Amino acid sequence: MAARKLTFVTGNANKLKEVQAILAESQIEIDSQDLDIPEVQGTTQEVALAKCKRAAELLGGPCITEDTALCFEALHGLPGPYIKHFMKELGHEGLNTLLVGFPTTAAWALCTFAYSAGPGTEPILFEGRTDGRIVPARGPTKFGWDPCFEPQGFDQTYAEMPAEQKNKISHRYRALEKLQAYLCTLTQQD
Ligand SMILES: O=c1[nH]c(=O)c2ncn([C@@H]3O[C@H](COP(=O)(O)OP(=O)(O)OP(=O)(O)O)[C@@H](O)[C@H]3O)c2[nH]1
Ligand SMILES: [Mg+2]
Which HAMAP family does the protein's record reference (predicted)? Predict the structure, then answer.
């Protein structure tokens, strides 16, 4: 299969690092552009579609974007795509406090990649979900809410796990698996 180069429009260096690590053995080569794209309000799908459409317009070519949501079962999926603002204002402790008094700390991490073939085309979405629960922060505080998210079936948080372990089970890995499969079909048509 021929190698395919893709531009990942993101301002988040941690996301980029994980995407490059997950795709290291693949035929997909990622470069990145940090463009300032306003994020709309709406469902995770609406947020992801609008972000990718705008990114393709600004770039003037094909691209991928990614939107990450952290969804609390007790809060019917919120903060969801607004987790960035919750995390910034409340921190790890505040995310735990939000759930005090609720019967469950169950949560899921949802990653939505969007691929645009270029300006004016409708992006295609690829979702990956990892279930888990919200816990008091454990592990290094290098990446967002990683210390507060303990994936189901593990007694370590994302932050406590080696990167290779997170990258085998993460919301991002699961979404990228689907994106990769789609890109393979495009390459076969080339
Ligand atoms: O602990 C974490 N583990 C992860 O695996 C992860 N993935 C994303 N995030 C954070 O969740 C918010 C998403 O917002 P987001 O999707 O709009 O990202 P962003 O604005 O940072 O970048 P981008 O939109 O330019 O790509 C931002 O605060 C990200 O830092 C994560 N935190
Ligand atoms: Mg963003």
Answer: HAM1_NTPase
Q: What is the pLDDT of residue 2?
A: 57
Q: Is the dihedral of CA 176, 179, 184, 190 positive or negative?
A: negative
Cβ atoms of 126 and 103 within 8 Å: the answer is no
Q: Which two tokens stand for residue 83?
A: 């987790």
Mean pLDDT of the chain: 95
How many Cβ atoms are within 10 Å of 164's Cβ, its own excluded?
Answer: 9
Question: Are the beta carbons of 122 and 43 closer than 8 angstroms?
Answer: no
Q: Which atom, in ligand 1's list, is nearest to the CA of 47?
A: 17
Segment 53-59 mean pLDDT: 97
Cα angle at 78 between 100 and 91, to 5 degrees? Answer: 60
Pocket of ligand 1 (CB under 6 A): 10-12, 15, 39, 66-68, 83-84, 87, 143-146, 158, 172
Q: How far apart are CA 90 and CA 108, in angstroms?
A: 19
pLDDT at 39: 86
Cβ atoms within 10 Å, residue 129: 14
The tokens of 60 are what?
């003037």
pLDDT for 2-52, tens place per residue? 578 999 999 999 999 999 999 999 989 999 999 989 889 999 999 999 999
